[in-house]
Each structure stands twice: as structure tokens, then as C-alpha cells.
Specification:
single chain, 232 residues, 6-stranded mixed sheet, globular
């Protein structure tokens, strides 16, 4: 099974070709409207869940292709995050996230991920758990936050969860070879800020991780997709 996360930077209705090219059965998509997600799921027979402040504006979505489907879903405390139960050949507990600024409370980026981890830690983690999306975060910016990226990594480790990309590639946090974002679409302003964290049983089923390239994806978004393959 292929799983993907991608910040599509809006206008998902005009990017179906790029979305289909991921060939993923389960997807977390940031910066997409509810209207675009509903149109896509109706036309393809997929199941989906979306959360955002306005259905015509940008939000966070989960898309599932048969035999996978969204069984239940709810929004969580961080404004753009949720808990989604996916059924199919296996049951997956998915926590999608799009971490960015929040005025009330004034919590930004990685601090939003810490709020999500508060929720995850308050319950028993499921064997097949995924926390994935646009974290807008990297350990190179640790000094900017009291609750920073590195302290979030420690919380993930206590949950026995690891980044699929870092495990597969052997890269160290903060020294990634493959950027997932180009600020202002500038090639020399490249950062790794999108992540897929997997529970221990899923880590043992990880067989591949691919991050899209600048040349292939810049025309569609300032983010590259990350696609992982699991032996499910």
C-alpha cells in the first residue's frame, strides 16, 4: 500500500493529474478546499474527510481509495488536524496535520504538533498508527520555539514512532538530503518540513520512501509530495 502526504498549495481541481501520479491508496493533502475534495471523491468513488474554517478555502483532507475507506473521523484541538480511522486490508489510525499559525491561541507551526501529541499521548496508541503532514518544522529552527522540533522528536520516540523518511534514507534530522519545500519557490531556499511518522509495527513493514523533485513538482506547488510504501 502506498501512502502519500502533499501540500498541494491550493487549486486541487486543476492538479488531478499530479495527484493521480502519486498512485497512493491513502493520502493526506494540505491546502485544498472541501469543494475540490468532494468533487474528486464523487467522480472517483473514493472516501474522504476534510477539515477547515471555510469549505471554499484551504483546509486539510484525507483521501482513501478502495479497498481502503474512511470509517470514522473527527477534528482535534490544533485547528488543522484530526483523528481518522481507516479500514480495509488492515485498520489504520491516522492523525493528519497541517501545522501553521494560530491567532487564538497564538501557537505556531511545531507548537501545533505538540498540541496534537498531547492528544495522541492521552490515549493508547493503536498498533498501526500514522501521524503525517506538513509540520512546517525542522530541527534547524529549534531556537525559535520553547516547544521545538527536537523535543517533539523525543515525544515521538516515547510513543515508539519514527520518521519513515529518516529511517529509510539514513538522514539525520536537520541534515536531510531531500527537501520537501522551496520557500517562495526558490530552489536555493529548500527545507525538509513534511513528515510521515509510523508506529513500530508499521516501521517493520516500510519498503520504500520517495520525495518528489524540484523539477517535477515546482509548477504545481511549493511543496514536494512524500510517498511511502508499506507491505500491507
Amino acid at each position: 500500500m502506498k501512502f502519500a502526504t502533499w501540500n498541494c498549495s491550493g487549486a486541487l481541481h486543476s492538479k488531478h493529474r499530479q495527484l493521480f501520479s502519486l498512485d497512493a491508496a491513502l493520502m493526506v493533502i494540505q491546502e485544498c478546499s472541501k469543494q475540490d475534495v468532494e468533487q474528486l471523491t464523487r467522480s472517483k468513488g473514493w472516501s474522504s474527510w476534510w477539515v477547515g474554517s471555510d469549505s471554499a478555502k484551504k483546509g486539510l483532507a484525507v483521501l482513501a481509495k478502495p479497498p481502503w475507506f474512511v470509517r470514522e473521523a473527527k477534528a482535534l484541538t490544533p485547528k488543522w488536524s484530526g483523528r481518522v480511522v481507516i479500514d480495509g486490508p488492515a485498520t489504520i489510525e491516522l492523525f493528519p496535520v497541517w501545522a501553521h499559525k494560530s491567532e487564538n491561541p497564538a501557537i505556531e507551526y511545531i507548537e501545533q504538533v505538540h498540541l496534537l501529541l498531547d492528544v495522541v499521548e492521552s490515549a493508547t496508541i493503536s498498533p498501526f498508527t500514522i501521524i503525517a503532514g506538513d509540520f512546517n518544522s525542522n530541527s534547524i529552527w529549534d531556537k525559535w520555539y520553547k516547544k521545538n522540533h527536537s523535543s517533539a522528536l523525543e515525544r515521538f520516540r516515547k510513543l515508539k514512532m519514527e520518521s519513515a523518511y529518516h529511517l529509510y534514507s539514513g538522514s539525520q534530522q536537520g541534515a536531510e538530503r531531500d527537501p520537501t519545500h522551496w520557500n517562495l519557490k526558490k530552489k536555493d531556499a529548500a527545507f525538509h518540513i513534511d513528515y510521515v511518522f509510523l508506529s513500530s509495527p508499521l516501521l517493520s513493514k516500510l519498503t520504500n520512501v520517495v520525495v518528489g523533485s524540484y523539477d517535477d513538482w515546482l509548477s504545481s506547488s511549493d511543496h514536494a509530495p512524500m510517498v511511502i510504501k508499506l507491505n500491507l
